[in-house]
Amino acid sequence: MADAHTYKFRVAMSCGGCSGAVNRVLGKLEGVQSYDVSLEKQEAVVVASPGLDYETVLKTIKKTGKKVESGEADGESKSIDLPE
């Protein structure tokens, strides 16, 4: 378990439907061990297996159409810009 990654994203969500959409996509993503989406804190925290990278999780959250305002991987700030 020690090599699991923790990714934290600040996501602009205005309602339960927004957080529900993020919940749904994370629930389907392979390699996610656990996740917590908080409408109150405007964040999504994902515990991922070693094979699931930051960019994949970021891309999955962005697919919901929600604005990702910041991200971090294992406590370090990361870019939220995806390579085209």
TrEMBL record:
**What protein name is recorded for this chain?**
HMA domain-containing protein
Pfam assignment, any one: HMA
Q: Which GO terms describe its cellular component?
A: cytosol
| Keyword Metal-binding attributed | yes
Q: Which family does it belong to?
A: Belongs to the ATX1 family.
Annotated region Disordered: where?
65-84
Domain HMA, by residue range, is 4-69
Q: Which UniProt keywords apply?
A: Chaperone, Copper, Copper transport, Ion transport, Metal-binding, Transport
PANTHER family given for it? COPPER TRANSPORT PROTEIN ATOX1 (PTHR46365:SF1)
In this chain, composition skew of type Basic and acidic residues spans 66-84
Q: Name one GO molecular function term.
A: copper chaperone activity
Q: Which residues form the signal peptide?
A: none
> What is a biological process (GO) this protein takes part in?
copper ion transport
* Alphabetical list of CDD domains matching this protein: HMA (cd00371)
What organism is this sequence from?
Answer: Xylaria grammica
Taxonomy, superkingdom: Eukaryota
Q: Does the keyword Metal-binding apply?
A: yes
